[in-house]
């Protein structure tokens, strides 16, 4: 129950059109109720299952909205790392706008490596295979905004092709041994 309270309190402070608002938390005789905006629409995973790959124009529009939402999260103080971008966590509303749902494994990033939202379980071994970056399974420390960018790319790929990357015939790797290099190393 503490992880739900932590997640709800974090989301309660958000104010972005692509993130549903949490209005209140009510503890009624030991049962916690989260009162939030109703998100009308379908998960993008359902849209893909029913209609297959989406048009480039639609994917670009949705991608821009998702980029804006992730930028909003990453620019907060402290930054919030979503860590679970995938089609089933993106709702397509009837008006064509998208909303990100399920902040269950999101957490606030701290440069010192200490999680502000430790109650959520700050393990790096969370996420969805095919969308989470390899380093998220490496156990070498907390992930940062780059994990969300990777997952967004995998999500956009799925929307364009109708295929999840985890099902591609790619040679398996030992993800636990992968450690991302700093972008500063690329310029060296």
UniProtKB/TrEMBL annotation:
Gene3D superfamilies: Transferase(Phosphotransferase) domain 1 (1.10.510.10). Its EC number is 2.7.11.1. CDD domains: STKc_PknB_like. Residues 1-188 form the Protein kinase domain. InterPro entries: Kinase-like_dom_sf, Prot_kinase_dom, Ser/Thr_kinase_AS. It holds the Pfam family Pkinase. It catalyses: L-seryl-[protein] + ATP = O-phospho-L-seryl-[protein] + ADP + H(+); L-threonyl-[protein] + ATP = O-phospho-L-threonyl-[protein] + ADP + H(+). Coiled coil: none annotated. Keywords: ATP-binding, Kinase, Nucleotide-binding, Serine/threonine-protein kinase, Transferase. It is an enzyme of class 2 (transferase). One of its GO terms (molecular function) is ATP binding. This is non-specific serine/threonine protein kinase.
